[in-house]
Each structure stands twice: as structure tokens, then as C-alpha cells.
Amino acid sequence: MTLRGEAQGHPYDADWSVIYQVYPRSFLDSDGDGIGDLAGLRAGLPALVDLGVSAIWLSPFYASPQRDGGYDVADYCAVDPVLGTLDDVDGIVRDAHAAGISVLIDLVPNHVSTDHAWFRKALDEGPSSAAASRFHFRRGVGSDQGAAPNNWESEFGGSAWSRVREHDGRWPDDWWYLHLFDRTQADLNWSSADVRADFLGVLDFWLDRGIDGFRIDVAHGLVKDEEFPDAELTDDSPFASRPYWRQPGVFEIFEGWRQHVERRRNQVMFVAEAWASPPAALAQWVAPGRLHQAFNFDLLEATWNAHEIRSRIDEAIEAMVDVGASPSWVLSNHDVVRVRTRLGASHPPRPGRGLNPTDIAEMDPIRGERLARAAAAVVMALPGSVYVYQGRSWGFRRRRSPTPREKTPRSNAPQGASSAVTAAGCRCRGHRTDLPSGSAGREHRGCRSLISGRASRDRSRSVTTSRSFLSTRRRFVSAVRTHSIVARFTGTHPATTRWTSRSRTSVWSQTWGTKSGTEMGVGSAS
Questions:
Q1: Which of 121, 176, 268, 357 is the most exposed place for a label (fewest CB within 10 A)?
Q2: Which residues pair with 363 in a beta bridge?
Q3: Cβ atoms 222, 253 nearer than 8 A
Q4: Which residue among the candidates 106, 273, 335, 369 is catalytic per the annotation?
């Protein structure tokens, strides 16, 4: 299906862009059922146009039982009826392109819902079937094969293996299946030719509808060590070595995707959620012929100290320059606590747990807002793409307790679980209040904003600040592109002209004047 000329897409400049992440279930509600939806997102596009974003990234809207907020996909080519229809997606793409905004969507290739037809067929046809080869089914170990195949742990706590019999009583007790996340999310086997072929079909389906790119969920986890050895579990950092993270064979998959889409279109953006550190390791994901960008999460882990932040920025830029890629900057997303909450925490998070300080009892909202604004000012002045999570422009804090309807494996996970979980408060809807026409730009066709009551009281000021940051970024980009030393990030290979410390300082001075890091709020506030 081709959208009347729209299938060519609307590429954006990854070197100097701002991408706004939308979590549809908690953005705008068009029908009053208390759940955000795609019609609400379409109605809210004018507000994002007013903010001046380059692209929007839509978190999963696929058909799903919603046991993990849509990341448990039951059909990659269908829309969850709670959120809307394919016609709604087409309308969003048309309206966004007309406004000069690109559209990226989440792609979840590591696992599917156990309600997916692929998994149901595997259960029906048995462990020796071709359908079963799409997944990681293995016999247990021990004298009676009653123990899990190895000690791999789920990101949501507990074993990464569950008995198949729990889903289908026809299977013997000694068969298990792998799920690195919730037990209702079965990991796909990317050694399967059928899995690889079907995913090319998924890419084609969405490219035909005019989608401009894909954010790849768990891009570091698709390939597992085929020996299935026990893991060393002493380090619970998301960057720790595991037999199922960052395996070399994953790059072949993405090289194949890149070749496939470029036979159709030259400018389709692939962005990896790949937990890899240091930046030189992350750069492997964006080497020539692979993906275009990979999220740099280093600032999520950084202590709020000017020297450390500067060091991490320098290291990230240098690593991306070496492989000819643009850096990316992330301060928050749907998986981590909001930046205002994290930076306002009364106690700094433990090393390796910096992404989700689950032990926050209190936070200083004034300090959190001040440092969050300083962080936004810093990233808006950096080359590459800045990824902004919805609500950041209103200065939202994390909801403390999601309602029962909003709970996911991430909100229920024990404190001993991975640091990549327990941020469900960032996904939740709040009290239903109108988005003001003055702060969001226009009325939203009767839709309701799903934002917290407390946040709504100061959102006008936060929106104004966000507009100011985005305007400053546009001025900064103009200065960079005309500056005799640093006008290089587009049109030439990054290795030809280094983004040196000297040139950065020069352009920063033009944009920010002579303020020091401490005056900007980037000092060692601890």
C-alpha cells in the first residue's frame, strides 16, 4: 500500500535535530476513556510544531495485550484498537509531513507477546517444528531436567526461563522458553531465516505507509550465545557483560536491514537502543553500513559535576566522529525516571543504578527543576540529535504510584531487579486537565491532556522555557554552520574536520556569552 506519494518519507537532519518521543497512551485522549490515543496525538501535533521539533518518535501502538505497555507485540502490522486504527497512523504521517516533521516508530524485534500468532503456532506444532525454531525452546537441566536451562535472569526479576507447560499443557514438563523480559514476552531466535524474512516484511509494511525511521528496542539483545552458558551475575549494571547482550552477530542483522531499505529509499533512519559503554563500544552500532544513530545514555549515569559531564560529552563526540556518525543525547525516556526527579533526588543513586533510583523517598523540586533546565541547556547546544521525552517540555516529575490499570512488569519489579526497570511512573497518565491554548499553541479539538495536576500549574512557564531552548538551538545551529572552524557536520565526513575542544568553546561563547558552567547551573551541585 502506498500513500499517494507519501512513501518517500520526510528525512530529517540527524546532525542538528530534536526528536520528541510520544508515549501514545499518556499523551492526549480524544474520546474521554482516560487513555491517550492516536487521534489525540494527531490533534496535538500543532503543539509539537509550535515547539519546533524535527521529528516525533512514537512508542508502540501495535496490537498488544498491554502487559508491558505495548512492548509485548501481538501483531506488528496492526494497531491496538484501544489506541486507534491504521487510518489514524496514516493521518499522523500526512499531517506531520505537511508540517515538516518526520515520523519514527518503535520496532520491537527482540521478543513478541505470547499471544502472537507465531508463538501460538509454535505451541500447536511442537518443539521439533519450524514454527518452534523461531523461539528459544530448550529442555531443562538436572537429573530430571526439572531446572531451568541456565541461570539467565529476566530484566523484570526472576529467571529468564519459564516452562512451556504453563502456556500449553500438551508440552512435557521439561521444556522451557526464553524471555529476557516478562514471561509473556518470548524472545525470538534471530538465527531463524523465517524471523529475518518476516521482519523485512514488517519494515516494508511501514515504509509503504510513509514512516521515516525506526527506533530499535533492545537492539543489543537480539543474538544470544548459542552455547547458552551460565552468566556472571555479580554486576547488575545495564552495561554488564552477559551471554545475551552485545553479541557480535547482531551487526549482521542490522547491516541486512540497512541494505534492504536502501534499495527502496536512501534516507530511512535507524536508531538503536543499545546499552553499550564506553562510547567507543557504542560506536560499533553506527559504523559504516550499520545503523545511523545509537542512544548515548552516558549522561543518565553522570554525576552532576561540570568536569565529568564535559568529559563524557567529549568522549561521546570523539567516538562518533571516528566512525562518521552523529552523536545523540538522552536525558530521559519511558524506561527511566524523569530528569527533574532524578536530579532533584535527596540522595544520589548508587553507581550502576543511576537510571532508576528506586530508593527516592523525597526530592527537592526546586533543585530538580533548576538542574533539569541546566541539563536541557547543555544538550541543546551539542551537535547531533537530542531526544526529548514527552512532558519534558512541561517540566513533569515522575508519578510516584501508578494506578492498578497502569501497572506493568516495570512498576511491579523488585528493587533487586535490573536498573533498566521500575520507571512506570514516567509512562502514566495523570489527572485529566485541558492543555491551555496559550502554552501549547492551539486548542486540541476537544482532546484532554493526560498530565498531572501539579505539573499543570507551572507548565506554561516550562513550555516557554522549552521554546526558548529550542530557539537557542536553532540559533546555535546557524552559528555552527557558518563558523569557519566548525561548519562541517553536514555534507562532509566527520573525520575530515574534528569537532575540537577549541571550536566548541568558540561557538559556545557566541551562543551563551561568557557564563561559566557553574553560573549556568552545571557546577558540582551535589
A1: 121
A2: 345
A3: yes
A4: 273
How far does Cα 289 stand from its chain's mean position? 22
Rounded distance, CA 76 to CA 206, Å?
A: 9
Give 169's contacts (C-beta < 8 A, 6+ positions apart). Answer: none
Cα–Cα distance measured from residue 48 to residue 466, given in angstroms and rounded to the nearest whole number: 11
Residue among 375, 390, 293, 383 nearest 342 (CA): 375
What angle do helix axes 459-482 and 38-51 make, rounded to 10 degrees? 60
Compute the distance between CA of residue 107 and CA of residue 233 in angstroms, rounded to an integer.
Answer: 28
509 vs 64: CA distance, rounded Å: 49
Task: Compute how many other C-beta atoms are within 10 angstroms of the C-beta atom of residue 519.
Answer: 12
CA 107 to chain CA centroid, Å, is 10
Fold of 16-110+193-512: TIM Barrel (3.20.20)
Q: How confident is the model at residue 409 (pLDDT cuts 50, 70, 90)?
A: low
Distances (CA, A) of 100 to 53, 54, 467, 474: 9, 7, 17, 15
**362 labelled catalytic:** no
Options 3.90.550.10, 3.90.400.10, 3.30.2090.10, 3.40.630.30; which CATH number does 117-187 get?
3.90.400.10
Highest-scoring range by mean pLDDT, 178-187, 228-237, 358-367, 457-466: 178-187
- Taking every pair of C-alpha atoms in the chain, what is the biggest distance, in angstroms? 72
Question: How many whole angstroms separate alpha carbon 36 and alpha carbon 105?
Answer: 17
Distance, in Å, from the CA atom of 133 to the CA atom of 395, rounded to the nearest integer, reads 46
Instruction: Judge whether 337 and 357 are in contact, CB under 8 Å.
Output: yes
Spell out the SS3 assignment of 436-477: CHHHHCCCCCCCEEECCHHHHHCHHHHHHHHHHHHHHHHHHH
- pLDDT at residue 480, as a whole number: 61
Write the Ramachandran bin of 287: left for phi over 0, alpha for psi from -120 to 50, otherwise beta.
Answer: beta
Residues 400, 423: Cα–Cα separation, whole Å: 9
The single residue of 217, 301, 369, 406 carrying the catalytic annotation is 217
**Residue 232 appears among annotated catalytic residues:** no
- The amino acid present at 405, given as its one-letter code, is R
